[in-house]
């Protein structure tokens, strides 16, 4: 089999041009991804865990967890591992043992859909409240469900504006409320305070459902005891991502919904399974990867990973600020927010950029050497940078935000203050 080495990946992969050199195409993909990894610091996938064992041992057959995690039928499935993963996440969140249910999803979006679908079935006339910092899947899900969405302002640091939430709830108080709080917003890793949100609903005598989209911060905050799903929390559902902090090498996640709230799904006779999840067939490999990540590190191992990542994030804020590039982070966060660097830096480094603000996410596996190289590139590209410049929309005169109403039956403990410039 011959193959021209200069062929682009698109041409080499073109299925109309047989014979195809499969090994070359796969090598090309891996080479490109490896080359990009060193400068990829803007997205939240942990890169420190080695899952080769699972991929090698299980990668040769179909593992289909079709139906409910409690189902036992079918040939090759990993539901026993899925149940163990869900139970572990339940436990670190202190979810009541007699009112828990959940499953391994395709990712944060499916988890949000499953939870909001369950909530909307119970409260079909509810307004779904979400902040402008919520993930883009939320308005999409509101549309899919044919529900009415109510947008709430977010503060410059990404946390929900509770005064605006209260005003919106007051305006729509005739209808039940489904409120989406975010624990780790996509751009700044802000954490909405679910205790304050519940208090606002109670104050206006509005019933409904509180969903927490904890895609990024769910596991690390739960390990710290700062995100809890116990009886006092008043939370109806939570989603976490599996390919972010837990580093699964395939998109996946976990959704947890109170058993008393979820839809139970019908029995499907030809598969002998219960249709309680969003998709029919479900990826058993993802459940095995999550189980492996948890089994090989345990609570303490993951707590240590989170702590190391936060230490690196603090180091990053310090180094950027010392270099005259004002950066900040929420104290619990892996995410470092900074003014968007000049184009040569953005060309080399894969950052997440939103207008004049960018972020780096110091996920486990990102190294000091990468941060040092990034800071050196910024310094070289902007020798005359204005040291007084601050990230867009962030009121540094008022930062740190200072103490807010103390969370009493606290579920998500919000950051008390922000670290960084000025
Ligand atoms: C807050 C939040 N929610 C949900 C998601 C969606 O996750 P996924 O891409 O796995 O659907 C993300 C992903 O970045 C996120 O940041």
List keywords for this structure.
12 helices; binds pyridoxal-5'-phosphate; 7-stranded mixed beta sheet; Aspartate Aminotransferase, domain 1; alpha/beta; 36% helix; 422 residues; 2 domains; Aspartate Aminotransferase, domain 2; 3-stranded antiparallel beta sheet
Describe the model.
- The chain folds into two domains: 55-296, Type I PLP-dependent aspartate aminotransferase-like (Major domain) (Aspartate Aminotransferase, domain 2), CATH 3.40.640; 299-401, Aspartate Aminotransferase, domain 1, CATH 3.90.1150.
- Helices cover 36% and strands 14% of the residues.
- The chain is built from twelve helices and 14 strands.
- It has helices at 9-13, 22-37, 52-58, 79-92, 108-122, 137-145, 162-171, 194-203, 218-223, 284-322, 343-348, 368-381; strands spanning 101-105, 127-131, 148-152, 177-182, 208-213, 237-241, 253-257, 267-268, 273-274, 328-329, 335-339, 352-354, 357-361, 419-420.
- The strands form four sheets. Strands 1-7-6-5-4-2-3 form a seven-stranded mixed sheet, with helices on both faces.
- The chain is globular.
- It starts with 8 loop residues before the first helix and ends with a strand.
- The model is unreliable at 387-417 (pLDDT under 50).
- Residues 107-109, 135, 137, 182, 184-186, 213, 215-216, 241, 251, 253 line the site of pyridoxal-5'-phosphate.
- Pyridoxal-5'-phosphate (PLP) binds next to helix 5.
The helix-and-strand class reads alpha/beta
How much beta, percentage-wise?
5-15%
The helix count comes to: 12
CATH architecture of the largest domain: 3-Layer(aba) Sandwich
Spatial strand arrangement across the major sheet: 1-7-6-5-4-2-3
Number of domains: 2
Spatial extent as radius of gyration: 23 Å
| Helical proportion, percent range | 25-40%
List each distinct ligand once.
pyridoxal-5'-phosphate
Shape by Cα distribution: globular
